[in-house]
Specification:
The chain is of the alpha/beta class. Helix content is 24%, strand content 16%. The strands form five sheets. Strands 11-10-9-3-2-1-13-12 form an eight-stranded parallel beta sheet. It has a five-stranded antiparallel beta sheet with strand order 14-15-16-20-18. A three-stranded antiparallel beta sheet has the order 4-8-7, with no helix packed on it. The termini are close together.
């Protein structure tokens, strides 16, 4: 998987029918932006956040039917058209699979909640109460917590039992120890592969299997900032049996050449991510996404990643649909919010994202430097975040994509489901396409550079000390080729010494145009500047070899 993946949040990408919600025909109409056209970004795959029928209590991650398309997004025929149109442009299509839980409206749950007998009785995690309180109310089977707050158990009066929900009460966890449930899930996976999709993103996959007896988790005396962190999650995720389950799933996927998957790790550390990894099956870790905008933090994060992922292939993500957009976070650190600084930060961050070792996952809108929007409570859509007292408001990072400078940003002709970004009149695709110095132009140049560079696509990575604490520098090497990346995080300026072990160096790309040339073995690095340099002469270092990276092209 040495290509670049682009995450589409379908409801926010492009609306074709004026109902204010992005949809699949809208996405098809904008594929030129992604790949296969003269001004395309040049990505290799899209990951589609869920498009299945859903009451949308958790942004589509509450699925009512795994084998259909929600009418808000279109029809199965639209999805077929999308897959075909993507394949014509050599774009792979990765579907989001939400298999830890369903919606409470899924027919399996509708039946399961009715009685302790019947074909779907064991499809979910049902348990008797651990006791009854003085008022005759049932007490939950154990102390497990919902990520979205409160107990993970909900009482079902019809069945007179509790069911488990790691997320909202409207998202009951399925029971992977039930053979019939497993068979249904695998048939569904096979169905999508037969339909032509190229892979899957597995939602919170490491929570699929729970300890068989469901023991209470140990409490942590000095917990973190949210209730969830007050427990050691020893029994409600990361169980040893998960490896066998993943092997079953991967056998189905691997039988289809050219497919790959990426697992979303749920609140576990990088060591867990590495342990679940396999060729063609990537796993997100969250180190980069949680790294603050300072050279020292990025240096530490990259060192930790390289140590953990040695010999394996990591992912690279700075933003996604669950977190504040990275440009917004970095601007807060810099305490500057003007458009010029915003663009400079977006370009510098993109340079890191597209030159580190691993598969980059871009989040729609970042290619124009999109920032979070502020959503008033009256227009809030993210039910889950509201339940969490807004500490995790995800509406802000899910704004409609800004295509043009018109009042509705070319996203819709109707009332957009979330507010249009306030800077859309000046920060939009059309405007940035016309400018050689835009954030979009920088992304396109970086993607083209990466595509043509063996060191950037597959090379080893080594951090380099260039003698300035505000400058991050690393070398990518593949056999006799080397590329050097230097990035200044602050608003100062100054010369750095280029590494002598390789070189001489020639600037191939700078985030601040026009680029400044090297002066002997030195180069000036301006405020927030990111520079990519190549060796002019090939490296003479016999014996260096580069392991073949897994590729998204199979
Ligand atoms: C992970 C998804 O990324 C997030 O958006 C969702 O809320 C949870 N899974 C629960 O489905």
């Amino acid at each position: 998987m040495d290509g670049v993946v682009y995450q589409v949040y379908p409801r926010s990408f492009a609306d074709s029918n004026g109902d204010g919600n992005g949809d699949l025909p809208g996405l098809i109409d904008h594929l030129d932006h992604l790949a296969g056209g003269p001004d395309s970004l040049g990505i290799d795959a899209i990951w589609l956040s869920p498009i299945y029928p859903s009451p949308m209590l958790d942004g589509g991650y509450d699925v009512m039917d795994y084998s259909a398309v929600d009418p808000v997004f279109g029809t199965l025929a639209d999805l077929d058209r999308l897959i075909e149109a993507c394949h014509q442009r050599s774009i792979r299509v990765i579907l989001d699979l939400v298999m830890n839980h369903t919606s409470h409206l899924h027919p399996w749950f509708v039946q399961s909640r009715q009685s302790t007998t019947g074909p779907f009785a064991d499809f979910y995690l049902w348990r008797n109460p651990s006791g009854w309180d003085r008022d005759g109310r049932p007490e939950p089977p154990n102390n497990w917590l919902s990520w979205f707050g409160g107990s993970a158990w909900e009482w079902e009066p019809q069945r007179r039992q509790f069911y488990l929900h790691t997320f909202l009460p409207e998202q009951p966890d399925v029971n992977w120890r039930c053979a019939a449930l497993r068979a249904e899930m695998w048939a569904m996976v096979q169905g999508w592969l037969d339909r032509g999709v190229d892979g899957f993103r597995l939602d919170v996959f490491n929570a699929f299997v729970k300890a068989a007896e469901l023991p209470s988790n140990p409490e942590i005396a000095a917990g973190g900032s949210i209730p969830w962190d007050g427990q050691e999650h020893r029994y409600d995720k990361d169980q040893p049996e998960l490896h066998d389950l993943l092997a079953e799933f991967r056998r189905i996927v691997d039988a289809r050449p050219g497919t790959s998957t990426v697992g979303e790790l749920f609140t576990s550390g990088i060591e867990a991510a590495v342990a679940y990894w396999a060729p063609r099956h990537l796993v997100f870790d969250w180190i980069l996404l949680e790294t603050a905008w300072t050279a020292a933090s990025f240096r530490a994060a990259i060192a930790a990643r390289e140590a953990a992922w040695a010999g394996r292939w990591p992912t690279i993500a700075l933003s996604n649909h669950d977190h504040s957009r990275h440009v917004s976070r970095y601007l807060d650190t810099l305490d500057r919010h003007d458009p010029a600084t915003s663009d400079a930060v977006a370009k510098a961050a993109a340079t890191i994202e597209l030159t580190l070792r691993g598969t980059p996952f871009l989040y729609y809108g970042e290619e124009i430097g999109a920032r979070d929007i502020v959503v008033p409570r009256s227009r809030a859509r993210d039910r889950a975040a509201l339940r969490m007292a807004d500490w995790w408001n995800r509406d802000g990072c899910r704004a409609p994509m800004a295509w043009t400078g018109d009042a509705k940003a070319g996203f819709t002709t109707g009332r957009p489901w979330l507010p249009i970004p306030p800077d859309a009149a000046s920060r939009n695709v059309e405007e940035q396409r016309a400018s050689g110095s835009s954030v979009l132009a920088h992304y396109r140049r970086l993607l083209a550079l990466r595509r043509g560079s063996r060191p950037l696509r597959t090379g080893e990575l080594a951090l380099v000390d260039v003698g300035d604490p505000d400058v991050l520098a690393y070398l990518r090497r593949a056999n006799d080729e080397a590329t050097l990346v230097v990035v200044r995080f602050g608003l100062g300026s100054g010369e750095i010494e280029l590494p002598q072990a390789a070189g001489p160096w020639k600037v191939v790309l700078s985030s601040l145009e026009p680029a400044t040339p090297t002066i002997g073995s030195r180069i000036e690095v301006r405020p927030l500047e990111a520079i990519v340099l190549d060796t002019v002469a090939p490296l003479v270092e016999p014996g260096s070899s580069v392991p073949d990276a897994p590729t998204i092209h199979g």
